[in-house]
Amino acid sequence: MFQFMTSTRIIFGEGALNNSLSSLNQFGYSVLLVTGRDSQRADPVISYLKQQNMRYQQVAVHGEPLIAMIEEMAAMGRKFRPDMVLAIGGGSVLDAGKALAAMIPNQGSVYDYVEVVGRNVPLQAKPIPFIAVPTTAGTGSEVSKNAVLRSAQENVKVSLRSPDMLADLAIVDPTLTYGMDPVMTGCCGMDAFSHLMEAYVCGDPNPLTDMVCEEGLRRLSGAILAASEDDDPRARADMSFAAMLGGMALANAKLGAAHGLASALGGRLDAPHGLITAQLSPYVMQENVLAAREAGRADVLNRYRQLACILTGRMNAEIIDGILWTKRTLKRLNLPPISDYGLCNVMFNEVAEDALLSNAIKGNPLPLNKARLLSILEQICNCCPQKQPTELDSADRLDN
Known about the structure:
Elements: E1 10-12, H1 16-20, E2 30-35, H2 43-51, E3 55-60, H3 67-80, E4 84-89, H4 91-103, E5 130-134, E6 146-151, E7 156-161, E8 169-172, H5 182-201, H6 207-230, H7 233-252, H8 257-266, H9 273-295, H10 298-312, H11 319-333, H12 348-357, H13 370-380
Parallel strand pairs: 1-8, 2-3, 2-4, 4-5, 5-8
Antiparallel strand pairs: 6-7
Helix pairs in contact: 3-4, 5-6, 5-7, 5-9, 6-7, 6-10, 8-9, 8-12, 9-10, 9-11, 9-13, 10-11, 12-13
C-alpha cells in the first residue's frame, strides 16, 4: 500500500505565468507576495495585482530562511491578513512562503511545529492558500510538503512539514529560469539530482515514485550540461520538469544520508543547501554501495545498477558508471567545494552525530553508522585520500 500527494493544481510550460495569473482571483483579493532580493521576475505578478486593484504586501527573503525570520514575517502577515501567500523565486523563497502560509493562521512559535529541534506537533489550523512560482530548477519546493528552515540556535536546518502545506497552485514556467548564472544552474540542477537519486534508491520507494524518479533522472542527465553551459531553452524546460518531479518524489518517498548530512552541515556553513547535497551525493552513493556489498544487500546494489543505466543511457552500465557520471558532472559544472565555505575536520564528529538524528537519514537504503558518515565527510573535505573507482570494481557486481 502507498499514497501519493502533490500540489492541488500544476500549470507547466513556457509562458505559464502570464497565461495563468487570472487563477489568483479564485483565492481572494489580498496577497502576501514573497520574493527574493531581486524581485524583477515578479514584475508580471505585481502588474497584474495593480491592474486588478488587488491588495498586496511584499516581503523579500535574503538567503535561506531563518526560523526567526519566519516568526517575524508571520507576525507582520497576521496584521496584514492576506487571503493567500504567493511566493516567486528560488527554493528559499518558496520555502519561506510555504512556511508563512502555514504559520499565519497558527499561533505559537515555529519551534512548536518543526522537526528535530522543536516539539513537532501538527498544525492546529489549515494553512492559507499558497501559490508557488519557481524561478530556478532545483528544489521542487513548488510540489513538496515541507519548508526547510535554518535554526541559528542549534546550528542545523530542519523542516516544517505537513501534507496541508502542499501548494494550492504551482505555476512552473521554464522561461523564468532563462539566463540564470551557469554555476547556479548547475548547483540547482544537482540539487534536483540529489532528490531524484535518493528517492529512487531509498529504503521505502513505491512504484509511482519510481516512475517519477526514472523520468526525472532521464531528463536531468540529458539536459543539465546544456542548460548550464548553453542556456538552451529545451534543456531549461527539461530541468524545470525534472526539478518538479524531484519535489514530487521527496514528498512521497524518502531521502537519505546526503540530505541527513546536509541538514547537519547547513546550520554550520553559509553554503547553499543544493551545493551541499550535490557535493555529498557521489560519496554517499559510493559508501552505500560498499555498505550494501558488505551486508549482502543485492536489492540495494540492483537499484544502484538501474540508476547507472538511467544516468548513462547504457543498458549494460555498472554501478561504478553512475558514481563516475555524478563526479564527472560535478567537475564539468565547476561547482565550488564545500571546503570553500569553511568545512573542516574539527566539526566532523558533531556533524555526523547530528546527521544520525535527522529524519532524512532514516530513508537511506540501509543504515550507515557514524564511521561511514565520517568517511564521507573526510572524502568531501579532501582531508584524506579519496577512494579510487577501482575500489568499487568488485562492489558493482553481484556474486551470482
